[in-house]
Amino acid sequence: MLAIFKRELRSYFTTATGYIFLAISLALFGAILGATTLMNATSSTGTYFILVLIILAMILPILTMKSFSEEKRTKTEQLLLTAPVSIPRMVLGKYLAALTMYVIVVLASMLNYIPLYTYTVKDALSSTMPPNFVMILGSTIAILLVGMSFIAIGMFVSSLTENQFAAVVITFGILAALLCITIFNGYISSAAIRLILDWFSIYNRFYNFTYGLFDFGALIYYLSVSGVFVFLTIRVFESRRYR
């Protein structure tokens, strides 16, 4: 598994995919934070993290699109299937590599908070309140958990097709649907259906973190989603190995 992990992580920096993902992510995060805080003379980051959640649905498919689609397109998938490593270890190696890349981006984006704190210190005589560290920390943890789920979903979709563009479009469609469940729920009269849809809602569980509340139920939910889609990806390749 370690060999697969190193190979995949290295590939992000030997191809354009990793650099494109880094550049787009950090540029968007910085621009959104500036537009929602400094330009509005506020230290509240609630809007910022909600917009980041939407952005993740658009950029994380870029990170996962080549996870397995590239292997199928270049005909190297058979090498993976016949390699002296189990399917679960192979899938987990690729998943952890993509997750590591994502964590690097999130940690690097935290440098954007420095101007926010500097601004509020200089503006201490005004009504601007200093940033709430607990809310920022909670929201950052939520962003990491959501990313874990999105990456698992993206890798599963990538395992189903050799077309990277199709992998991006399908993954974005699934992620967008999960984010929009809360909106759709407002138009459904059946309480039972609303309850079921609420359970699948990514946004509802994320929202608590923006208030600095650590939701253990949400933690279990995000870990479960990640685990389920990693398992489904494993099953896809196990079916191919023994076909």
Strand and helix layout:
Blueprint: H1 2-14, H2 16-36, H3 46-64, H4 69-73, H5 77-82, H6 87-109, H7 113-122, H8 133-158, H9 164-185, H10 191-200, H11 202-209, H12 216-241
Helix pairs in contact: 1-2, 1-6, 2-3, 2-6, 3-8, 3-9, 6-8, 6-12, 8-9, 8-12, 9-10
Largest β-sheet summary: none
Radius of gyration: 19 Å
**How many separate domains?**
1
Q: Proportion of β residues?
A: under 5%
The tally of helices reads: 12
Q: Write down how many β-strands occur, each being a DSSP E stretch of 2 or more residues.
A: 0
Overview of this structure, please?
The chain has 243 residues and is an all-alpha fold. The protein has one domain. It is built from twelve helices and no strands. Helix 3 runs antiparallel to helix 9 and helix 8 (133-158) packs across helix 9. The longest helix has 26 residues, at 133-158. The model has no long low-confidence stretch (mean pLDDT 82).
In short:
With 243 residues, the chain is mainly alpha-helical.
Structure characteristics:
78% helix, globular, 243 residues, 0% strand, mainly alpha
